[in-house]
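DATA SHEET
Item: assembly model
Revision: 1
Owner: S.N.
Input lines:
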Amino acid sequence: MHINLRHDVSEYNEAELLHFQKCLQCQDDFKSLELLNSAGSTIPLMEPDELNWHAIKQRTNHFEKRTLYQKTKSKFSQKVMAIAASTFFIAATWLFFNNYQLQAQLERQYLLAKQAQQNQIFSAKQVDFAQKLEQVLQRTQILERQLKTNDLQSFQQAELLIKVNELEQQLHMSNSAEEQLRVLNVRQEAINDILQLQKGTMYEYSI
Amino acid sequence: MNIVYKKVGQVILLTSTMVCTGIVEANSSTCGTVSFAPTEFDNNNYIATIVGNNGVSVRDNKHSRAIAKGEHKFNLAEGTHTLLVEQWRSGHYRRAFRKTGRQMKSSEKLAAIQTKTMQIDVEAGHHYELEFSTNDQTANIAVKSDTLSKCNSKKMFAAKANANSNVSLPESLEYRLRRLMLKLNQHHKTTTQNSEFGNLVPVKLNNYFGLVFDKNHSTQNESLRVLTVLPNSFAHKLGFISGDVITEFGQSPIKPSVGAPSNILNNYLNQLYFQGDISMKISRDGQTMLLKNKYIPVVIPEVSYNIDNTLSVASNKKGDNKLKTYNPVVNSTSIPSTLGFEFDQLILEIDDYYRQNNVNKNVTINRKNIWDGRYGIQGDMINSSKGVGFQILSINKTSPASIIGLAKDDIILAVNHQKLTELKIGNLTSKLEKLQPKVNYTLTILRNNKVVEVADVYERTLLPGFNLNLDFESVSIVQGALVDRRLVDINKPDNEIERWIKNDIIRAIGYDPLGT
């Protein structure tokens, strides 16, 4: 590995100097470098024409103006574009939001109207159911007040009691108001039959 | 302190009752023996032991080693026994009875035990080796071998009192019992494929109160509205009618709570002492009323029955050295709920009838097969627009009338074209009695003002013969065990004494009042 060559030999350190003294290639290279240096200092200086200078200067001025104009024009359009985009965005967002609100309001109004309608129907149904329930309970009460506990039942009484028990199990399991009402009405008829049997007015013969 | 004395007293009373009535002294000629063959299911060995005899706890801890090996012979007095039998995994049994014999505190051990109720008719000098068919609740107990063997012990389990068989029933109960047995026969035939069937229905508490509540009456259940009251139920006898609103239980307002209204009632009933007071404040027609009475839930007696007379004990001579040709064991099989209500109602009515007629002994009702003589219609003789007829107001199910297709309000005008001419019922019944089984017949009827004819083969219904035994003693035993106690005490024992009481009651009667 060779050392870096320098103009002045005094700039080398001791190790480099030792290497330089031993290395023939380094010494040859140093001589070539000195020759090149001395040849360069002997080349004469050349002055360009004034026209060339003028052309260069004119060209430089035009380029500077053009760049400045372009820069000014670009900044302005960007601002305009930004303002326009922002305005458009704001307008679009506002429109979208407004539309959404309007739609939500309309939907809410529709739902409220529907709910009110349903509530009206539901409450009307509830009232109707409550009234019908009251009526069937009152009718059954009248029958049950006359019903006696019966330790010894006839075959038909027992069959009716089994039917009543089955109806009551259905009622116990039922969750629908309509079903409850239906079962209660059927049960009322069965209770009436039991009562008529107890009174002996249901029929004359069993064969 | 009084409570402690009371509870100790209950235990003494209960245990002394067991000792006094469970084991009797007798000579060897009047007893037979029973043992259980060890069985193996899924590589586990199982043994069985008798813990209840005719409603009395007879747990035998002294012979636990022999029982664990399946070698112990239980001495049973000659006669009928209802046995409560536990089936254990033999390893569990050995561990449970290794020390003091009373170490069934772990719920796991209790769950591992299968408890079955069975009835056996023991003949003196016989040894019955019994075995379980499976190791689960569907198990049946059958006789593996029946051999002649002397019964040498003087201590034995007492048999049931001899049943009184010379008792009749009124016509209405008789016919209902016949029809019920027909239904049971049909049910058992479909489930067991056997034409002969025996069943044991253990004694039980009828704690159905008889009310159905309105679930939509109140969200917090501050008050409970009654929708229906079952006729003849406890609620009916207490004075409830449909539409009543319960506001207080036992002078305390109902605590608001969510959930089924029936649970609130059950919670109150479970707190009541048997034969103690029950009171409820109700609102009816805007007025407040107090319904009050004694709380005495009905106990339905133990019933065993054999349909088709397959277990006719009378056909076997006593003392005969030959082996029995009939099955002396009757297992307990559940009855579907649709039939269960009818069964319970009828048994309670028969029970009431016998008690009112001072028949307090056990009763056996023996009946042979008969044809159902009823045509299956109810109604009146009337003068219709087309002449004299019988107007139908109701029809029995599975009767000749229902088979031929008669309907309510039909008017029968003629049988086999022979018109009814008089308003007397005999005019119709005499014609119906002439009908021949398996032969076509025609009825002329007035239906919706039109005269039509219906025809079919006359099919009479065969009402099967049966032996039915009602054990009135079982009722007294359960009533005695439950007196002055509450369901909540029995179901949730809070100390060792209550646990003993609970276990003894349940094991003795083979029934947990709350189904736990």
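QC remark: Helices of chain A lie at 14-22, 24-40, 50-146, 155-173, 177-199.
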